Amino acid sequence: MLISEVPAFREYWYPIGYSGDIADEPTPFKIFGEEYVAWRGGSGAVHAARDECPHRHARLSQGWLADGCLTCPYHGWKFGEDGHCVEIPAADPELPIPPRAHVDKILAAERYGLVWVCVGMPRAGIPDLVEADDPGYTLIHEMMDVWTASAPRIVDNALDVSHVAWVHRNSVGSSANPRLEAGPVERDGQTFRFSVTLISQVNEQQKRNTGITADTTRRTTHAELVQPLVFRGRMVYEENGLEHVLYKTCTPIDDEHTLFCQFIARNDDPPPEKWDSITAVDRQVQAEDRALLENVNPNFPVEISTELHTKADRMTLEYRRILAELAAEAPGVAPDSAWAKPFRRDPVRDAPVPSGATSDGDA
């Protein structure tokens, strides 16, 4: 399954930048393989539309803002906050502006210091992230980077806690303690929650960031698939009760590229001078994930039998079921057999039957 094959993904909200990034000039962005432009109108509200003038298809992101209007660089047409053209410089000012002279707008809004867009008819709102709205937590924006990896692969990795001991063995993982203590997966529609405890490594920088003094600690993650491409993980450290809440959003630029955004909420009121150190650890962890995921097939399996699963995979197995349901809403999704290697082949069961023998092995 590729992102482009599943229309349902277009019916959710995704971040395309920080609020401060959309300011004094049009800002181009790409989502689902299509070009768009974002701008801030005269009222201060953020807007977004296809990056194309209806006149001669010039890129509006190459234009500018004038009197709060988005101005085309080709012929100077100006578009107001509602997307309709308000001025055509070369036209007779006595003539009405044609009703077709408008940009193709999409939904845009701000929350958590981010600009979010939805290119379709939303089936859900901008996700509610409890701690991010709670004044008892400190919100820290950590990273927004383009990864050469598909969005479902990145979310799947966030749900796959058993990889921590190995992929993150040089940061927070402990390969000497690979076993997990996982509770049941509790599903509600197209979201689900689970809790899992592991032994986490605590290096010197982590000790300074967390106040934990031991070299390892028990860490429980209360995880939630908030939306198909939005993850929330509330990590609680047993030693001191510190909560480090991870939010990961994946905006599909196209089938093979994702705008990965991560921000956190902390309940220990860390001073601003400590934020860079906290972020540095999280960036190292994500760099380790990125190095692996950018070499994984962007196609995502939605047929359960394509891969081999273990008990530790039940969180990611549920994710596959949810994506399979979204994919099944519309035709056009290629079966896994069209792209996947035959992982499910059993070399003994599927071996050719010797001449003169029956299929059950009897002579």
Summarize this entry quickly:
This protein has 363 residues and is an alpha+beta fold.
What's the layout of helices and strands?
Elements: E1 14-18, E2 27-31, E3 34-40, E4 46-50, E5 64-66, E6 69-71, E7 78-79, E8 85-87, E9 105-111, E10 114-118, E11 138-147, H1 151-159, H2 164-167, E12 181-182, E13 186-188, E14 191-201, H3 204-210, E15 216-227, E16 230-237, E17 243-252, E18 258-266, H4 275-293, H5 314-327
Structural class: alpha+beta
Question: Unreliable stretches, pLDDT < 50, 5 or more residues?
Answer: 357-363
Q: Would you report the number of β strands?
A: 18
* CATH level-3 fold name of the largest domain: Naphthalene 1,2-dioxygenase Alpha Subunit, Chain A, domain 1
Give the number of domains: 2
Work out the helicity level: 10-25%
How far the N terminus sits from the C terminus, by CA atoms, comes to 44 Å
Integer average pLDDT: 90
- H/E element order: EEEEEEEEEEEHHEEEHEEEEHH
| Shape assignment | globular
Report on the biggest sheet.
8 strands, antiparallel
CATH superfamily of the largest domain: Naphthalene 1,2-dioxygenase Alpha Subunit, Chain A, domain 1
CATH class category of the largest domain: Alpha Beta
Summed up, the helix count is: 5
Which CATH architecture of the largest domain? Alpha-Beta Complex
Written description of the protein model:
The two termini are 44 Å apart. The strands form three sheets. Strands 11, 12, 13, 14, 15, 16, 17 and 18 form an eight-stranded antiparallel beta sheet that branches. Strands 1-10-9-4-3-2 form a six-stranded antiparallel beta sheet, with no helix packed on it. Strand 7 and strand 8 (85-87) form a beta hairpin. With 363 residues, the chain is an alpha+beta fold. The radius of gyration is 24 Å and the shape is globular. It folds into two domains: 9-118, Rieske Iron-sulfur Protein, CATH 2.102.10; 130-318, Alpha-Beta Complex (Naphthalene 1,2-dioxygenase Alpha Subunit, Chain A, domain 1). It has five helices and 18 strands. Helices cover 15% and strands 30% of the residues.
